[in-house]
Specification:
The protein is an alpha+beta fold. It has helices at residues 21-26, 30-37, 43-59, 109-123, 138-146, 174-183, and strands at residues 6-7, 11-15, 63-70, 75-83, 93-100, 128-133, 150-156, 162-169. 37% of the residues are buried. It has a single domain (6-183), classed as Aminopeptidase. Strand 7 and strand 8 form a beta hairpin. An 8-stranded mixed β-sheet has the order 1-2-3-4-5-6-8-7, with helices on both faces. Helices cover 35% and strands 28% of the residues. The protein contains 6 helices and 8 strands, in the order ββαααβββαβαββα.
Length: 186
Amino acid sequence: MGDVELSDGVISLAPLRPEDAEAHLAGEDEPMVRWLSGGRSTRGDVDAYIRHCQEQWDTGGSLRAFGIRAGSAGTLAGTVDLRFEAEGLGAGQVNVAYGIYPAWRGRGLATRAVLLACGYAATAGGRQAVIQVEPENCASVAVARRAGFASAGYATGADGTRLDRYVRDLPFTPDNAARSSTASGA
């Protein structure tokens, strides 16, 4: 499994682990289901997803899924995923998706996680980060803007859903991302 660990001194990102399954399942609430997963998960679903994420790390697949860890105990506070290949992405573009569990929202962790993940994406060959979000998902739109992404029109999902697109050119280093996160009040 990937042995990547990124930190800005407030949060850290590391690949999801099997022992994260319970916390991930417990963190799933209505907004996570609505904006990110599309349906309630079972323990079996979460276990399968984490195995898939581990396989992607092990085989150099197009998905890099990180757990967002916060607090002195490194508690799992959410996830941030990078997809280096996906429908609607151009050469060098990387899709960024994120979710923060309810107990950790409103603390700027998603912005910090996006910036750290983008720093990693740049080192892995990404040239532009893309966030696609339903316009009604105001919290996610705010994260994109705080992380320095610019509006880039919209796309239509496979199910017909409008997704506003936000982009940010890469590269920038994790050190610069941490400074940007601090400067933006994240």
